[in-house]
User: Fold these one by one.
Assistant:
Number 1:
Amino acid sequence: MNSYSLGLAGSWWLVVLIILAAAAFAFYSYRVTVPPVSSGRRSLLLFLRTLAISLLLFVLFEPVLNIVRSTEEPPHLAVLLDNSLSMSFKDAQSDRRESFKSSLNSAKPFDIDESATTLLFSDDIKRVQNFTFDSLKLKGQLSDISKPLNYVLQNAEPDNLRAALLITDGAFNSGNNPLNQAELIGRPLYIIGIGDSTEPRDISVQSIVTNDVAYIETTLPVNVNVKSAGFTEGSITVVLKDNGAKIAEQIISLKTDQQLYTTSFQYIPKQEGIRKLTAEIAPREGEITTKNNAASEFVKVLKTKRQIVLFAGAPSPDVSFIRNEILKEKGAEIQTFIQKQGAEFYEGNPGAGVLKEAELIILIGFPNSASPSNVIQQIAQEAGNGKPVLFVLSQQTDFKKLQPLEAYLPFTTVSSRPQEFLALADVKQDQASNPLLKITGTDGDIAVWNQLPPLFRTETFVKVKPESEVAATIRVNNVPLAEPLIVSRSFQRSKSIALLGYGLYRWKLAGQAADIFKGKTDAPDVLNAFLQNSSRWLTADNDQKTVRIRTNKKLYTSGERVEFIAQVYDAAYTPLDNADVRVKINGGKSPRDIVMQPIGNGRYTANLDGMPEGDYSFTGDARQNSRALGSDNGRFSVGEIALEYQNLRMNVELLRALAERTGGKFYTPAQAAAFKDDLLKSKNFAPRPVTKRNEFALWNLPWLLGAAILAFALEWFLRKRSGLI
């Protein structure tokens, strides 16, 4: 049903009166003509003038035409089809692919709604037009049921989706819990469950749990989680392999009342690089599939422990205490160079390779007046390359010799005298969240710092750099001074910390040890906490490169697209969009070379399709105007992944809950034919009235003005033809 109305900016009576006045004016103008014309022509002239004036006056009142149309929009159906790999399995009693096809044929969703919204989902969703069963490839590597449900939620109102048919096995392994999403839809979900709801006979490696990074000749725990369903007697052997070579095995005895088992291995890497650890179980007779009998993880093996180099201007208690506390950190290895009376070191002169391999440089009272300049320059060069520095003051520190290093420290020296005095740490409340000062992680940490024994300090005055942060200042005779004690700096990929005091052993001996002697067994070890915090903060992201190249995953299935992602920066860590990024892939029958394409903000991407099964390594480099910017490398594998094989039964509990909570219904493939009748009988699946209102601003239409001008033009033409004055 349609309705029409015409609105004006003024009164209709006024419009009518003005139009009548225009007609009267036209009549008055043509009551007598010179020369006289026929009555027919005079009437035509009178009409044209009245029409032209009336149209102009009508437009001045801004007329608006309102049209209201009421129609009914038919209900629409969303058909959500699981396109993941698990839908192609063969259960003990049925073939899921055939059950899927027969369920679609029985349910006849496209007979109900020819324009049904059809979504295929696995790890992502894909909308298809003119659906046929051949559109289903059933090769998706993940099952995310929440994504198609979210699509229905977002499009229910605009597309009038009144119900959804979901065909799946319910074994979701990615995304959010679909129950949470379904409750928000407000539409019934009719679900056809595919697969066997009973647990099939199967043994699978569920996961490998270990660290991402390991060190040569250092034990790395590797936990392997195994699931056994349908096998309750005997034993299974779990084999651990390193790059395909067997390194250990464990035997698990199966129990009647247990399905999940965990076994532990002690892996000791022998070679550096990215190693592929694989846990395998020999197939047993009667298993539904053997494709989940193995799982893999990649571990990055580093050549040595984390290398720390310590330079000291002379032997001192601080050197011993700091060295011992740093060694308490797992994976840390410290190499010391302590000066003798002259320019020599007790350990011998440091070579350039020592500093190149270091991840952290510690300076304690170094340099002094006798420190060799070439060593100072080597340290400055490595600091310029991004090596972090921890600087600890001493009475013998020579600030003139320190000048080459000041560019990488958080301060510049204003003046210095070796006169020493005692100073207490003064930490303000606004530093409670400073990671360097964390002891217990509570507000009480500030009080602990402010109660520490005093340190020694020389009359050294420094200027803190603008990008630096003062963590603690000093108090002398309990009077707060603005002079810094602990300062940190993070700027352009360079990090440093300066502790402008010495006698740190006092925090240990006169602080923690004294408290323990008094019976406070829980006295905090501030020195250990500070040094551990400083070491972690300084070396965090220390492996950050100007060129980073990786694949979006480490493990792919056969035929899956391999995506390479790169990030390229200059020395100031500014993204570069005009670099030439190339990757060489080794593995398979022959090497492959690819050129990555920029996508903005220093990011590059490239894709590879059709990679055969196998292990691959890659090296990539970036150049700009023939200048090398950096390189990166990595590994990935193409083969069967076990994730879709981890849960082989239909999750009937989830599917029934989805149907019940949304007011829908659950079907087995044998019951799928009932779907059509149930949906058509549903009160929810009904047309909705749609009212559309359209407004047309007639005063803004050019043809009204054109009609008025045409009427005036015709009048003028006829007057000229008639010779009227």
Number 2:
Amino acid sequence: MQKIGLQGLYVTGILCLFGAANASAHVVAVDPGEYDGQWRADGGSFVTGPQSVDLATGSHTIQVGSVGFFTIEVDAGGVVVVPNNSAVGGPNQLTFNTIDVVVDPAAFDGQWTISRGEPANFASGVRTATVVVDTAAQVAVGSAGGFTFSANTAGDVATSAVSAIGGLGTLTFNTVDVVVDPGSYAGLWNMSRGEPANFAAGVRTATVVPGVGSRIAVGTFGAVDFTADGGGVVTPANPVSAIGGLNAINLNTVTVVIDPAAFGGQWSISRGPVSSVTGAQTVSLVPGTLFQVIAGTFGGFFVDIDETGNVNVLNGVSAVGGTGTLTFNTVDILVDPGDFLGLWSISRGEPGTPIGGVQTATLVPGTPFQFIAGTFGGFFVMADAEGEVEVSNGVSATGGSGTLTFNTTVITIDPGDFTGNWSISRAGFFTGTQNVALVPLVSFRLESDGAGEFFTVGEPCEVNPSLITLGAGTFTLDCGCVDTDVDGVCDFEDICPNDPENDADGDGVCGDLDVCSGDDATGDTDGDGICDDIDFCTGANASGDADGDGICNDLDQ
């Protein structure tokens, strides 16, 4: 081992201290100036506006927006030095240099923005962008395109892309027109964040920016990306989905037979070639893209199709795909509305028309369905491939294996001085104060005199609103129920609403009406004041056997 003396130890200590000083962090106040976009230091989290950051002695990278970078040096004293024109340094401070550029999208009527920059929100038309000098900024065009540019201290804007032309404080888009022909695809399409922006069908002309990606949105979720060069030659990103040409792109299609099998409700392809249909249908779809098949109103599952027409069901549960075929899977569940006496249905499902009582419903597994209680109250239910049922809110109903049972909460509706008829839409017609069993967390409509207002019963019970005025009536809606005989059983389900003992003798006659004690179901049939179970003289003979000869008065000669 080599030995070192005191002088060596002293030098070593100085070097260690010097190294520690070099590694120490400095608090640097970073001011982005007029730049309102996002920035970050050394790959940290993106921030906006002035920030204080800890920077060690040495080199650091400042990222501006999505693609802009410049480097800085921090010396041992915390002084920041910037080797280019992007910012100005100083003792523990860094200030961005900025310049305004007027961006003109010219004939492009779609949406654009500066990625992570400013303006940050997608919009259309001429706008002013504030950028950091001598750093790259990315223009995001539509949903899938983008190109970069930069501006120097003099305001000269430069870009290497064919997408735009720079000038003094200006950037102007180049554009080309492309005729989009969907072929036999009869569904809706548009240019995502582009132009035409509105969904429609058939042949249309799109104005695009050359050199950047453009996206045709097919249906709701399908996408066909392509690029047009400066001469208008179109190249699809996926040749399975489309064929390019000079100022033209043609969508490819394949034919698929869709069979809903035992599902008798309505089905659709979201923004596709069919909407709210029943039974089997033959459709033309674009291969290499995604489509959503809707069962009922809200239940959806995704499929994609290859160039041979082979259909793949992404969740593997809702349907079975094949070459040119798609067949729904179905499960039957027994629906019990419980104490809810109104009508119920499944939105565009089966049963699709309002119906009451216990019924069997046919669902497509792996997709949500909306159950409607009354006219407007809805909650979502989904069954898996084995028929196990789940209720989305966990309150309105209880699911089981092949079963669904509505939960109910009893409320009292008091019309006050109003003596006319009132109703709950598709849940009953009433007069006076009534107890009503309703499904929690769904909307119901109280109606009277041609007017109506919605209310909801919460869980635990809370009625909102609790006071409703309709025409001449002011209705009070309270949790709980009317219990006239105070026996703990609501009048609407109490077999003897005025008898707290509820026919104690079990003779089928409520105590408040029973003139005969004991289990005498007939009472005093002849009205002679003697109950039938001890009356040996039947008929209208109030005196019985007056002479005691064993012959009833009405028969005694």
Number 3:
Amino acid sequence: MGREATQILSEVFGYRAFRGLQKEIIESACEGRDALVLMPTGGGKSLCFQIPALVRPGVAVVISPLIALMADQVATLRQLGVRAEALNSTLSSTDQADIERRLRSGEIDLLYLAPERALQPRTAELLGELPVALIAIDEAHCVSQWGHDFRPEYMQLAALADRIPDAPRMALTATADGPTRREIVTRLGLRDPGEFIASFDRPNITYRVAERQGGKQQLLRFLEEQHRGDAGIVYCLSRRSVEETAEWLTARGIPAYPYHAGLDSELRQRHQTRFLNEEGQVIVATIAFGMGIDKPNVRFVAHLDLPGSVEAYYQETGRAGRDGLPATAWMVYGLSDLIRRRSMLEESESGEQRKRVERAKLDALLGYCELSSCRRVALLGYFGEELAAPCGNCDNCLDPPDTWDATEAARMALSAIYRTGQRFGVGQVVDVLRGKTQEKVERWGHDRLSVFGVGRDHSEAEWRTLLRQLVARGLVDVDVDGYGTLHLNDSCRPLLRGETNLELRRPVKKTRKAARKTAAPVGLDAEQRRVFESLRETRLDLAHEQGVPPYVIFHDATLQAMVVEHPETLAELAEIPGVGAKKLERYGEIFLGALQEALAEATQ
């Protein structure tokens, strides 16, 4: 690694050492090689193109999918003293002309563009006139038809590279399986790229999945017991659910704001700005929110509905804990989620091959939900990474679920589905098994079947859990016909014939109470937490003065290090991770003073 790159890392970004594969990636880019970079959210992807942009001559072009993300990264870079700009439709013609002038005069180091803007003839012509240091394509999985967030305009970006053939290209993403990686390389025309695949593990995230038992009430308990006062994201499948959940949480003292594509754009922007610029805010959103959100202190991501794939789940949960401090990925689900998701899939205009791929992805996610073993082992295994031992930081490791030999009960359930004609949903099958003489049971003559009442020893909740797990394991199919009709498939034959046994999770009777967490980072004692909160107030005041999100001044992790290390001089403060030369000059005296004052007050 050249001395210049390590100097930039230290002096500009305030870090003393590269993490993981950063060194190799940056070295490759500085040498002019193309690269495919897979690195989890929060793993330091941005540095992989930002440092080569400052080492290599010319301007680096960064393709980014969202205007909000561009604005966020530009604001962060400017705080570091880096000459960065975003060229997009929110700018006046005068501002756009000024950026073009400064590009031609070499006054800009990084230029952020949306793919649509990059492909405009005027932009392509402008870039063709400039020395381009590199082309970085962020969220590169958007190029793949088999990825979870396909965007057609990404497929045309190879044309931009053709226009600037000498610039190295770097495609970056946090989520891509094997087929998606191959398509990224092909679609973007990467030339013999170095492939850098970092660990997908986010050890600071605790993964928790639970059966839905009154979803909003479960969410409220989760927030009150573990994340009161923390910033977080709650994902819902429908716009109606988003608005109802945000209103419901607000009425119970949680500052929550809805975000979905059906809201007025000005209102959406206002809600996003509050989430980014204020502390402890909650966004309730559809997947319209979140791609590339850089807010580092999101302490939780909650799903009230099942995502569409493991890739989508991984990317959405990855928005938690980007600062490396503890965070939670929490989700509730039920059989209704699967029915809705499959219904949406079957009603889509996708071709049969695409639908087949999406069905498999949905089935993989459902299998993840039903695990009784370590979730992190399964999650990393999905992306081809092996974890040597259980993680100790997911619900199944921290509180192992009870399991039981469900072989005989499963055979009863399969028999009940078959003998009722494979024409009914979960409710009717459960009523037959438990011997309930409901009007619908009697009307169809199901009270005269040999299976009527054979399952009285099991509760309704137990049967519903068992049937959901049979669907998750592919032993029973469920139709998306509006009724959730259950029917058997060939996979259940070995179980019916007595050739195999089946062990399943027991249903959870009640939500176990988790240890309460405060908004302050884990590991600080009461006195240190008071100092930390004081530094957060100082940061918030500075952010409001400048009209920027607090985290672009300093991350929570940097404030926590100040609290723990007690720097007394500018030289000592410069040793804190995240304090670069420009920030030391701009904020050093302010935070040293605030720290000393807070320490004095905390000890009184």
